[in-house]
Specification:
elongated; alpha/beta; 2 domains; about 650 residues; about 20% strand; Nitrilase/N-carbamoyl-D-aminoacid amidohydrolase; Rossmann fold; 20 helices; single chain
Length: about 650
């Protein structure tokens, strides 16, 4: 297993009710198919060795004996498989019959987990045939082997503790306090559910909600293997609706009556990291000392690096994006509205450049005034042209502001900056960092002083990507009175501006469309022939890459090599590995060296799962070193 990825599967075999020999044959066939796929974890449905719908035949000694014979065949077949397999089987123990999940690996039966909650309502009458799981862990004899028997068993891969699995059975998930909660608290990163859930109208939706919700609650993976339509149809129909979810996200689903095998790549190391940083998640020791941890030696195959979304902050589905966009805009609007009212400001002051960030901030400011039923003229949009300002960006900024009905003010800062250059002895012909930053700081001073003069509040425009990279001038555009875009990354800013553009018409839409087509630039260096010469993505790297690095570093906790491999897979055909490696190193250098700017960043609303506010999600020393992260990439060759 590389990077924590492993291939897991659920399988719904064809069964003949009360024919364990036939069922074992079909189960073994699916095991061999899973072997060809390099599956490391395979889950079959509840009572699949006999069929779930045997009714009073479960009391038959012959069926019990045949089930054990079938389990023995499956155990033998597992010698050449090398995966951890869970099969459903009825087992007799101390004078009672139990509905069990048997864990099999490498020619051994590792343990048997009995069902805790037996449904005895509606169409179910399991208490007629089975006993509920007893307390504690005992020893059960199967053939000549003694195996652990109990609900509190965690199966842990030798040498890979993150690959830890526990089991529950069907109804166990549907109760108020599922056993999986205790299993997860005891350290199981994966919970498997062997199920026989009959199909009724609307049940599939509810089942899906249960599985994805439970995976989120346990901060783990949840595999749900459902019995299929070859079960008896005397009174019920089963559909094989099987699901695999990971931390609230549905990875794979076999739709009702689309039976067979499905696979999904799990990231067990990421799940372990997620639990580690969630302080309210209990430690394994807090689950009590009554769990038994059973090692197994499964073949943990390396699986192809899964393909992650290139733009993790932007939903790929258009309908989902529309919902997400309105939610984000609502959060930004609510945050700025509250700050505006709390400060008693008379107006909102915003510097507009014709770029994406100031455009989004302006659009949010308009939303605030509309929500408060105050005139949009109480927004003062200030354009501050200087040495690098192009007619295109200035015209777009003014056209948009006027079309939105806000007050527009132009303050040409060239003369003020030239005086400042003279005061500090800066050669205006030297286009260095002082040349650039003097303009950014002058613009911030203008906005702050205008706000003081009119009783206004300065709205910050910088986005999350710039915050992460430190792509701002300290005490220049780095500063504001409220950073409305502070946790919106550049890739998402672009899509949000497009979201607004689709809703507007006339001059406002025309201006927005051209803003979306304009290269990202701070415009701090002189233009050539009226065209932008300073293009941000040529200097610090593509924002698609940096936002990808940001999300999978901060939110997912991926180490450098894993992030590199995932990025190469995601951007295959768009960026060469050498390009990805170059900008990934740049990301680490800037992310670490620019923390001092984040340590004193202005207030701003958190809108998603990634925020770099020093008062919220991200606390990092300003003098931390990036060397350990860069060292991990040192031996990567991209030739």
């Amino acid at each position: 297993m590389r990077d924590g990825f492993l291939l897991a599967a659920t399988a719904t075999p064809e069964v003949r009710v009360a024919d364990p020999a036939y069922n074992a044959e079909k189960i073994i066939e699916m095991m061999m198919r899973a072997k060809e796929k390099n599956v490391s974890l395979l889950v079959f449905p509840e009572l699949c060795i006999t069929g779930y719908t045997c009714g009073d035949l479960f009391a038959s000694q012959r069926l019990a004996a045949a089930a054990l014979e079938a389990l023995e065949r499956i155990r033998e077949a597992s010698r050449g498989f090398g995966a951890l397999v869970f099969v459903g089987v009825p087992l007799r123990h101390r004078g009672k019959l139990y509905n069990c999940a048997a864990a099999v690996c490498g020619g051994r039966i590792l343990g048997a987990v009995p069902k805790t909650h037996l449904p005895n309502y509606g169409e179910f009458y399991e208490k007629r045939n089975f006993a509920p799981a007893p307390e504690g862990i005992s020893e059960l004899t199967i053939g000549e082997e003694s195996v652990p028997f109990g609900t509190k068993l965690v199966f842990r891969a030798a040498g890979m503790p993150e690959f830890s699995v526990a089991a529950e059975i069907c109804e166990d998930l549907w109760v108020v306090a599922p056993p999986s909660l205790s299993h997860a608290a005891a350290g199981a990163g994966i919970v498997v559910n062997l199920s026989a859930s009959n199909e009724t109208i609307g049940k599939a939706d509810y089942r899906r909600q249960l599985v994805t919700g439970q995976s989120a609650r346990i901060l783990g993976a949840y595999l749900y293997a459902d019995a299929g339509s070859s079960e008896s149809t005397t009174d019920l129909v089963f559909s094989g609706h099987s699901l695999i979810a990971e931390n609230g996200r549905l990875l794979a689903e076999r739709a009702p009556f689309d039976e067979g095998m499905q696979t999904a790549v799990l990231d067990v190391c990421r799940l372990a990291d997620e639990r580690l940083k969630t302080e309210t998640y209990p430690s394994a020791s807090g689950a009590g000392g009554d769990y038994r941890y059973i090692p197994f030696d499964a073949d943990i195959h390396a699986v192809p690096t899964p393909k992650f979304p290139r733009r993790p902050f932007v939903p790929e589905d258009r309908t989902e994006f529309e919902k997400r966009a309105e939610s984000i805009v609502g959060i930004q609007t609510a945050g700025l509205r509250k700050r505006f009212l709390h400060t008693g400001a008379k107006c909102l002051v915003i510097g507009i450049s014709g770029g994406l960030d100031s455009t989004l901030a302006l659009l949010i400011s308009v939303r605030v005034m509309d929500a408060l039923k105050r005139p949009r003229t109480e927004i003062l949009a200030v354009t501050m042209p200087c040495f690098g300002t192009t007619a295109r960006t200035k015209n777009n900024a003014v056209t948009l502001a006027e079309a939105l009905g806000v007050t527009v003010k132009t303050v040409d800062i060239r003369r003020a900056v030239e005086v400042h250059f003279a005061d500090i002895g800066q050669d205006a012909g030297v286009h260095d960092v002082t040349y650039e930053n003097a303009q950014a700081r002058e613009r911030t001073q203008v906005l702050m002083d205008i706000a003081n003069a009119c009783g206004g509040l300065v709205v910050g425009t910088g986005d999350l990507s710039e915050v992460a990279l430190g792509w701002s001038t300290y005490n220049g555009d780095h500063m504001s009175m409220y950073g409305v875009n502070a946790s919106v990354p550049k890739t998402l800013v672009r899509y949000l501006v497009g979201y607004f553009a689709a809703k507007l018409t006339g001059a406002a839409k025309t201006a927005l469309d051209d803003i979306l087509a304009t290269p990202v630039s701070p415009e701090l260096l002189p233009a050539e022939n009226g065209e932008i010469t300073q293009k941000t993505e040529e200097l610090v790297g593509p924002y698609d890459l940096h936002d990808f690095f940001l999300y999978y570093t901060v939110r997912m906790g991926f180490p450098p090599k894993k992030l590199f491999r995932v990025a190469c897979r995601a951007f295959e055909g768009e960026f060469a590995p050498a390009v990805i490696l170059k900008w990934q190193k740049q990301f680490y250098r800037r992310f670490f060296s620019q923390q001092f700017k984040r340590s004193c960043m202005p207030d701003g609303p958190k809108v998603g799962s990634v925020s770099l506010s020093p008062r919220g999600d991200w606390r990092m020393p300003s003098d931390a070193s990036a060397e350990a992260w860069l060292a991990e990439l040192a031996d990567i060759r991209t030739e």
